[in-house]
Model the fold of this input.
Amino acid sequence: MKRHSIAFNSYGVKFSIVSNDVDLLASACKTARSAMLGNLIEIDSGTSRHELSLELVDGGVHFKMNGQDHGVTPWPKLEHFFDTCVRILVAEFAEGFVFLHCGVVEWNGKSILFPGDSFTGKTTIVAEFVKRGAVYYSDEYAIVDREGLVHPFARPLSIRHRTDLSIRFDTPAETLGSTVGAEPIPIDFIFLLNYRKNAHFRPRSLSLGEGVMQLMPQAIPLRVNPKFTLLLLNKICERAKVFRSNRGNSKFAVNKIIDLIDKIGL
Amino acid sequence: MNNAHNPIARESGLVVQEMDNEVLVYDLDSNKAHCLNESAAFVWRSCDGTNSVADIVKEFDKNSKGKVSEDFVWLAIDQLSENGLLNAPVAKPFAGQSRREVLKKIGLASLVALPVVASLVTPQSAMAAGSCACPAGNPAPCAALTPCPSTTNCNPGGVCAP
Done:
């Protein structure tokens, strides 16, 4: 099989995309660029440390990531999964950055992180802030550099269908009336919110250790690079005020969060 | 082997992050994270293999941490042992009593914050989550397994797939 490959560096992660088909390779590279919002540069293939292999075969594309076999799937169906794999690869192995699974907005000059797993209502809160004019940074990853600054990763908000949570609608922040963050900013507030129907917003301030512990499950590179990740989480929580609370209705929760931020100042 | 009365804090395979009043420990072997409050951290640092439980009680007083009992120190050692933060496990010293009962007894008598070791198992590697044994064909629970790469589907083998 003739192999064609193109290698990229994204946030210090060097990976190559390999295929037996030039057109497929071109499509995959386009998807990878889109996955990382253009934050990748082409490099010499010999220096890459990770491989995403796409082999055109009967019935579709045989996809392997670092040797892990993901089976044969038609490209249109595989594309979304491939996009996710690229982001996860970069998030896990980024050098000098920690990717946290978080929503991020800037409100009146203060940056706010909303860490959380999928299906915990992170995007709902971010979207509510964005509708009120907050600067949008991300609804997926907080990309934090070694100085503790969070960088924008402003993919369109991925808003889920009300009843079928597996259906999502990509909604650009601009269509909700917001602007998108351009510069890295320090982290001021972190709200760990847990959605419960009709729950009251009763924030509890967390200690430094508690804050770091609560952020750890959302830190993608924790197992790959625990030392750097812990150092950075510590740095983040030393500066930021970290709160934990249940919350019910998103509009009500955002009102309370804004009140709290205004009260605390900084 | 630990002398149960002179326990030794484990050093290898740990990433330790010192904070003002807490210590955060990441266990590279078990991928568990532990947050030791001030009291638990003080006991852990004092477990050098030469200090007995009685010595650690005296150290508390000497370092202006307050007066504590041997049961108080044992409570910390019990938690440190259970979480693999000592070189070797130490047998539970509270004969016939549950930790809850001991906590209640010590808590009522102590002015010093009780030793607490809060722990969590960190999620598996995102790349490893590529085979996260999701319930086959049931994407919602699969997608909830952060950071499972497949938020749309799982193949019949329960492996994340497009």
